[in-house]
TrEMBL record:
Its EC number is 4.1.1.23. GO terms for biological process: 'de novo' pyrimidine nucleobase biosynthetic process; pyrimidine ribonucleotide biosynthetic process. It comes from the Bacteria. It catalyses: orotidine 5'-phosphate + H(+) = UMP + CO2. It comes from Leucobacter edaphi. InterPro entries: Aldolase_TIM (IPR013785), OMPdecase_type-2 (IPR011995), OMPdeCOase_dom (IPR001754), RibuloseP-bd_barrel (IPR011060). This is Orotidine-5'-phosphate decarboxylase. Residues 19-273 form the Orotidine 5'-phosphate decarboxylase domain. The keyword Lyase applies. The gene is pyrF.
Length: 289
């Protein structure tokens, strides 16, 4: 295990009992709730307050880029300042960008979000491999060379996902299970001695993963597979059920909550993060990687 890899840094968070990922999703109604304008300055203020509150309590933050992107260049400038605060606070950042494209174009997305020193530098990004796992090569270079991470969409929390993600790939696996297997295989091949891999998957906390052909019975061979699990809180998933939901695949689980933590204004946000962090840590008590 090394803190020069994303997986190593995740392992350190888990060892400290931190499994919570706090979403930074400046929805218009939430900004109103916080007494903030629905503009780039409002989104920046929310982001920076969340970063300050999450430092030391959560494993990571996950800015949802769409809520910044809607303000154009001002939104990206705001996001850069949020990311810079998070780096200064030593908080892991997963950029929720869900990028995917043909390999050459996708590589530019990887460069934007994962190059050390880039204005948008993050520790990990969410990616879509529905154009083929091989298109991810450009981002995987940053995983290998710069200790970055990626989370590949596998079984997402939204109900519309089933028709695509339950479909069969040419090898007979469901698309969702194929993403899980390809991510785990990359970690086994590239970092066999790491306790936790640097390539993870997104699995919704609102799902029965067996429906998607995903085996939750046993821990996959090799490094533990990082699982970013949105869908807790507002979408109905309960952290108290995390072990039942993820079983053997949940050895390196990051539970994301956004609206359930952000709702209610800025007052009390530290307490809400502390409480949600304790709830997920309790639920996974014997699961520390
Ligand atoms: O990749 C994601 O983060 C993601 C995948 C998924 O399957 N479901 C999902 O809700 N998300 C994101 O996770 C966050 C969930 O927000 P809340 O429902 O407010 O907790 C949003 O930013 C979503 O875009």
């Amino acid at each position: 295990m090394t803190d020069r890899t994303f997986g190593g840094r995740l392992a350190a968070e888990f060892a400290a009992g931190r499994h919570l990922c706090v979403g930074i999703d400046p929805h218009a109604p939430l900004l109103a709730d916080w007494g903030l304008a629905d503009d780039a300055a409002g989104a920046e203020r929310m982001g920076r307050v969340v970063v300050e509150a999450a430092a030391g309590l959560a494993a990571c933050v996950k800015p949802q880029i769409a809520f910044f992107e809607r303000f154009g260049s001002a939104g990206f400038a705001a996001l850069e300042r949020v990311l810079s605060d998070a780096r200064a606070a030593n908080l892991l950042v997963i950029a929720d960008v869900k990028r995917g494209d043909i390999g050459t174009s996708f590589a530019a997305y990887g460069d934007a979000w994962l190059t050390p020193g880039s204005p948008l530098e993050s520790d990990a990004m969410t990616v879509s491999a529905y154009q083929g796992f091989g298109t991810l090569t450009g981002a995987l270079r940053h995983v290998r060379e710069h200790g970055k991470g990626v989370f590949v969409l596998a079984a997402t929390s939204n109900p519309e996902a089933r028709e695509v993600q339950m479909a069969q790939r040419m090898d007979g696996k469901t698309v969702a299970a194929a993403m899980v297997d390809d991510a785990a295989a990359w970690n086994r091949a590239e970092a066999p001695r790491e306790a936790v891999g640097s390539v993870g998957v997104v699995l919704g906390a609102t799902l029965d993963l067996a429906d998607f052909g995903i085996d939750t019975g046993a821990k996959p061979d090799g490094p533990a597979l990082p699982v970013l699990a949105p869908g807790f809180g507002h979408q109905g998933g309960r952290v108290e059920e995390a072990r039942t939901l993820f079983g053997g695949i949940g050895h390196a689980l990051l539970a994301n909550e956004s609206r359930s933590i952000l709702a209610g204004g800025s007052a009390g946000i530290t307490e809400r993060i502390r409480e949600r962090g304790a709830a997920i840590a309790d639920a996974l008590d014997d699961r520390r990687a």
